[in-house]
Amino acid sequence: MTWRRRAGYGIAGVVAGMVLGCSSEGPSGNDGGIEVAISPPSLSVARGGSGSVTVTLTREGGFSGAVTLTSTGLPAGITASVAPSELSGATVNATVNVTVAASTATGTYTGTITATAQGASQATATYQVTVTEAADFALTVTPAARTIVAGGSSAATVGITRTSFSNAIALTLLNPPGGITGVFEPASSTTGGSGLTVNVGAGVAPGVYPLTIQGTATGPGSRTTTLTVTVPAPPVGGNVQFQFCSPEELPMFFAFQDGAGAWQAVTGTISGAGTAYTLNLSQSYGGVLLVYRFAEAGAVRSRIRLPAGLGSAAGRIAQVRQSALGDVYFTVVVYASRTELAQDGAETCAATQPTKTLTAAVAGVPPGSYGRMSLGGVTRIFDGAASTNPLTFEGVPSGLVDLVGTRTIPGAAPNRALVIRNLNLADGAAMPGGVDFAGAAAVVPATATATVTGGGGDALEIYVDLVTANGLGGMWADLSPSPTSTRPWGGLGPAAMLSSDMHGLYAFASAQGSPGDFRVVLRYVGPVADQTLALGPTIAAPTSSQVAGGAYPRYRFQGVLPAVYDKGATVDLVGDDVFGNIYSILATSAWLAAKGNGLAYDFTMPDVAGLAGFPVDARLTAGDNLLIASGFGFTGAGAFDLRPVLGGEFKASIRSGATIVVP
User: Which residues have C-beta within 8 Å of that of residue 134, sequence separation ≥ 6?
Assistant: First the structure.
């Protein structure tokens, strides 16, 4: 704007001239304008972190003057600085550096950039700053304590809880004591956890060792959790001890074999809260033989919960024998390395705690639907049209347990799922509130596809377990056997899972016309997602021959395993009537290798009939006995069975149908 002085106007005239004397004779650029834009228009910044956006200036109409940039609008706790704060000449870009204090509340905030210049109208642009939780993670370990004998190993699961963070976390044992090492699978985790196998050297002294598990990641840094390992002193009078802490699961006869030596009977002694059987193994391998007597064979399913190797046999037999009208004898033989037997014995007490009976009223399961519920590993099926309500759960372990349940229509993936955690009810109690599949605790399950390979025309089925910090529960079965290799499966999505949770996804393949022959593959996975499961080959039927008759007939069983079944073999004999006894032999690959070939088994029933205390009625039942053989292998921690760990996979083949006629 220009003005002219006119004579005689005085002060008033000068002012009037300034106001009215506007013309086009001003400085260069007064007829132009400016605009600003911000890219990106929004950014996310974690609390305690920083980020930036770019301001771009556009000059219009020939304007070329300097432009000043200022930032306003953001609350206390968020600082925005502009560099450079003045754009002149050819400079058209500036950076807005945003810093968020650690105390700033999460949420979305709006900032404004204002551009001003002499001779041009101001321009503004806004951008969004979303404040998120700081990137972080936390570690847990389940179980938090393990007893491991010197020379043994055991497994645990490391859980990872992530907050605004998805990068890899490197896991290590931080400065473990000499002789104790840990192997993580995987060692660098991008998921919600990892498996840990702790190995204790033979020379480690008895004691309690807190092991620090450290996770390290770029950004958050390091976090730790503690696993307490107890190395017990060798039992007095021997180097292997089995201690049973529940009278219900106490064997009536116990014997052991040192290497290939003669079998010796062992008498239990009262030790603390249970009964201990102590044996001395001088060889690198050996065996144990236990005899149980039950008033009903159904007790094999509802009561017996044995450790590792022993429990594996019990679980298989429980599927074969449901009930009986008289006493049933169950003989278990476990062959393994001395270290494996010692570790099995160290975990016996924890696996044989007293049990209880609980009830739960079920709602939200209409006719035509089925509810599958597992309480502390005890699974029951509720038929919406016919089941008695409430359901009774017998044999529930003491301590904290979880209830896992799904509702489904046969042949379809589950349509409701729920997990009720950390229940610790008294024996005989009813679950507070029951189990309501239409209630607030139930969620819509996540579903995906399981593709099964190697089925070979067998009837396929999918089963799902859920592993939580309090154990394993049966979650769902598709109830629709067929050769179809692509099948739905369902469980929990990420929002419903804790860091220590994982699914056990099984595929079963039953031979057409021979349902007793089947194969299984199991994989432990995280949240529900598409999976491909590859079945192993079918094993050959074992050969059998009688080696002794009389009052205690004994037999020999031989067979060769495909390479995928590299962890061991089992042979079971089941008396073919409601009074039939059960005889089970399990051998690990370490024992098989010590005998000459880790993929070939040669079992002869031990001659223990003459040992003091042996119950003669535990002999094989006269008449038809069903012969069942299996081979198994897995990748992951464990000696007798795969310990639950993300990515771990188990495969087995079971052959049955052959009959041995016992005199």
Answer: 46, 47, 48, 49, 102, 163, 164, 220
Cα distances (angstroms) measured from residue 91 to each of 65, 195, 280 = 11, 56, 86
Helix then strand then coil, % of the chain, to nearest 5: 10, 50, 40
Instruction: Say how far apart CA 319 and CA 628 lie, in whole Å.
Output: 12
Task: Return the bridge partners of 461, or none.
Answer: 508
- What gap in Å lies between CA 631 and CA 598, rounded to an integer? 11
> Token match 């949770």: residue?
501
Q: pLDDT below 70 — which residues of the chain? A: 1-31, 272-273, 295-326, 577-579
Measured distance CA(400)–CA(379) in Å, rounded: 16
Note the pLDDT tens digit of each residue in 196-220: 989 999 899 999 999 999 999 998 9
70-96 in b/e form (b: 16+ CB < 10 A) is ebebbeeebebebeeeebeeeeeebeb
CA-wise closest residue to 638 among 188, 287, 223, 152: 152
What is the SS3 string spanning 298-342?
Answer: HHHHHCCCCCHHHHHHHHHHHHHCCCCCCCEEEEEEEEEEHHHHH
Dihedral sign, CA of 632, 637, 639, 643?
negative
532-552 confidence digits (pLDDT tens): 999 999 999 999 999 999 999
Burial class (CB in 10 A: 0-12, 13-18, 19+), 175: exposed
Identify which of 142, 187, 132, 185 has the alpha carbon closest to the alpha carbon of residue 162: 132
Distance CA 397, CA 351 (A): 9
Q: Sketch out the chain's domains with CATH numbers.
A: 33-132 (2.60.40.10), 136-231 (2.60.40.10), 240-352+539-662 (no CATH), 356-531 (no CATH)
